[in-house]
Each structure stands twice: as structure tokens, then as C-alpha cells.
Amino acid sequence: MLKVYNTLTRTKQEFKSIIPELVCMYSCGPTVYSYAHIGNLRTYIFMDLVRRLLKFEGFKIKGVMNITDVGHLMADADSGEDKMDSAARELNKTPIEIAEMYTDAFYIDLEKLNIEKPEIIVKATDHVNEMISYVEKLIQNGYAYEISDGIYFDRSKFPKYGILSGAKLDDQIAGIRVEVNNEKRHPADFALWKKAEPLHIMRWDSPWGEGYPGWHIECSVMSQKYLGETFDIHTGGVDHIPIHHENEIAQNEAISKKQSVNYWMHGEFMLVDGGKMSKSLKNTYTISDLEERGYSALDFRYFCLNAHYRSKLNFTFVGMDAAKKTRENLGQQLAKHKESTIETDKEILNNYRKSFKEAIEDDLNVPLALGILFTILKEPKSRCIYDLAIEFDAIFGLALDNVPDLTQKKSEDTIPIEILELANKRSFAKRNKDYVLADKIRSEISKNGYLIIDTKDGFTISKEGEKE
Ligand code: AMP
Ligand code: ZN
């Protein structure tokens, strides 16, 4: 039985989709004002694991992810500049150019990390008219009001507010230190639409003059448009629980009067060296930063799989070294199983299958599932074990059918220069059709304990007996 942890109920619950065999799922996507950092990417790996789990369980998925290309202010509340506007100014580009550049970079990261794109990816700027209509509806229904700098949601009209985070309205008001806008009915009311200041670049006509949408309304409008008033799963990082997702619930349910999401699933944060990631500390690494230091995106994916998605994960380069080495080791072990012609007993295989399924069905216990992968690799060499590992990889997404087998590379790396020279001489002899000399050199190479094999592209050399 598939169980997932639901932030809404704070329990692990049996998963049941609204429509049998189809899961409708929304994932908060990136704000495309800079490159995604490894923390952001941990959250998308988590989204990918949820998707892989659902597919493994036989569901089809209608997944929607937004691209936030407007409206996300520097602070998640309603203050600060729009992140897109500010990046455009800094780089002397238009917000559209900024959005395109970082959206493309984001897709490249997804591909490198083996993260399958959701079926529907939508841009906030393509839905501004729908957002305006939504805000109008909220005003008509008495949930929103206009003040001089925008339209705000009146939280006192939505008593359920705080259902996801457990925060009470009074606690939140007490937590707000400096109130920047005293026209608001409540300090904790949040913006649905902001009126554009004179220098604001991104702006649209609206019944309230030129302005731009609030970040929270985007996700409400796009999730409901593509998935309906009630859908199955909503994912995001834990930082979104107290503000962004509470606001989404308030907006959705104020209009629909229905529970908008059945399962809220949140991925925990990634820390760096035990602390917060921040630009000022220069520890917001990107995938390119990791690549420059000799790690692949899949080394990072593997690093993430070692922690449960609801545990904090501390990023260190020591940890990345270990991840890289373990992946290499996996490649070697898998290659040996793949070459074997021996079969493993079906019952043994089925027992492993069962344990694996139990692990992932228990709220996506991927670290435990990885443990099972390492256990099967200790079985006597067998092609069946290789095939089972590939079956498990439907969840891991580590491209196990293509992990570099570095056995050969390692031996080539250590081939003495004299042997390589002999091999080159032999190639030369062959090109000149001097096969007698070529054979003589081959046996000399062999006497030194190396094996040379001709391939269509040239030759490979390895230490004799090193490859099983
Ligand atoms: P943003 O582009 O800022 O909207 O963030 C994209 C996603 O990354 C959101 O789901 C955030 O919750 C998530 N996120 C941001 N920082 C971290 C972090 N340090 N660890 C894990 N997820 C994060
Ligand atoms: Zn969102």
C-alpha cells in the first residue's frame, strides 16, 4: 500500500487519487531570475522522485509546473523589488530575455539531473488576464480589497488560514516586526495585485491601473486552470509552507469553497556546511560549479538520494567525493553482473523486489531502497541482478544502464608509456601492412602483461586478467 506524508494532516496517509490511475499534480516551479542552485535542484529531484514513484505504482501523471517570470518579490511577503525586474536592471537586459536565459538553463539542469519534465509547463506572464479575473472574483466575493498600492487578500475572512503550517493569525501578526503599509486592514493581509511604481518594468493594464500580479495568485490560477478546483498532489520546498502555500489555499478555497489539494508534499532544505545557503556567503553552488570541480550532475543526484526527502541534507564537498566514488564503484559492480551468464533464483529476486517496493511505498524511503540495491550487488555475479538493478533505477533515475565502468579507464590511465609506444608502433606497422612486425610487437606487449585488442576505432589496452 502506497503511503505518503501529507503536510496538511501531519501524518503518513494511504495515497488514493481522485481519478483512478491518474494523478493530477502541481509543483511550484523556479523563479527564473538567476541559475537554479543546488538547494532548488534538490527540491526538483524530490518532485521527480514523487513522479517516478507514482509511475512505478502504475499511475499516469498530469503534472503541471509554473515558471515564475513575474511577481516574486525579494521578500516572500509583499516587500522589495520584483526579482525579475531587479535582475533585468542588473544585467541590462529585458525581463523577457532574463526569463528565457534562465528558463533554458533550468531545462538543461533538469536534463543533466535526469529529472523528467512535468507534462505541462506554464509561464506566469501567459496567464495575467486570468489572474486579473481571479482577483476580481475575490473582490466580488468579499475576500479582497483595494488600497493605494494594490489589491490585498483579507485574511480575517478566511478562518481556515494557517491549516498547513499550524500558525495562528495572531502569532503571525506578532511576528511581523515593521509594518510597511498601514493602509492594510490587517498587517498579515497579502498582495494579490500590485500597482506598478513609475520605474517598474513589467506592467499590465488592469481595472486598478497598470500593475503586476502577486506571486501567490499565479500558482492558484495556473494549478486550478490545468488541474481543476481539487487535485491530488502539490509539491514544493518546506519554505513555502507558512506563506506561499497558505496563501494559495486561502485564494483557492475562498472561490471554490472546496478543499483544493488532497496531499501537500514538501521537500526539506539543503544546507551548505551546516548553514544556510546564501549569495553573500558565496555558497549557492550551481550544477556548472560542481562540474567545474569534476563532479557530474548525476553524482549530485546520487548525493541527494542518500537522505530522505523530509530530512535536511547538508552539502559538503567531502560528501560529493564519496558520492562520486560510490557511483564509480556501482558502475564496476554492475558491469560485472551484466557480463555474467549465471542466473539467480527467482524467489531470491522476488524477495528483493518486495523489500524494494515496501521501502519506496513507505513515503518514498529512497535511502532504504538504495541499501537494497547495494545488498543485491553483493549476490554472486548474475545478469538477473543487473536486470533487477535497472528495474530499481526506474525510481533512482541514476542511469544505471550507463554508469561509467571505470575499470578499463583506470587501467588505461596506468599503462606505462613504453607499452603505449609499442602499441603505437604496432598501429603504424599495421597501417603499412607489415603484419609480421605487428604480431611481433603484440607478443612483446603480451610478454609485459598487457592485452591489446583491435577495435574499429583503433585499439584498447588493458592489464591482462584485470577484466573479468
Ligand atoms: P524559487 O525559485 O525561489 O521559487 O525556489 C524554487 C524551489 O526551490 C522552491 O520549491 C523552494 O522551496 C526550493 N528551495 C529554495 N531554497 C532551497 C534549499 N536551500 N533547499 C531545498 N529547496 C530549496
Ligand atoms: Zn507556487
Structure description:
- The chain is built from 16 helices and 15 strands.
- The protein is of the alpha/beta class and 468 residues long.
- It has three domains: 3-267, HUPs (Rossmann fold, 3-Layer(aba) Sandwich), CATH 3.40.50.620; 272-396, no CATH class; 406-463, no CATH class.
- The strands form five sheets. Strands 5-4-3-10-11 form a five-stranded parallel sheet, sandwiched between helices.
- The longest helix has 23 residues, at 317-339.
- It is elongated.
- The two termini are 41 Å apart.
- 40% of the residues are buried.
- The model has no long low-confidence stretch (mean pLDDT 90).
* E-strand count: 15
Name the strands of the widest sheet in spatial order. 5-4-3-10-11
Structural class: alpha/beta
Proportion in β-strands: 15-25%
* The named CATH superfamily of the largest domain: HUPs
Helix content: 40-55%
Question: What small molecules does the structure contain?
Answer: adenosine monophosphate, zinc ion
User: What are the segments in which pLDDT stays under 50 over at least 5 consecutive residues?
Assistant: none
Q: Count helical runs.
A: 16
The largest sheet is: 5 strands, parallel
Oligomer: single chain
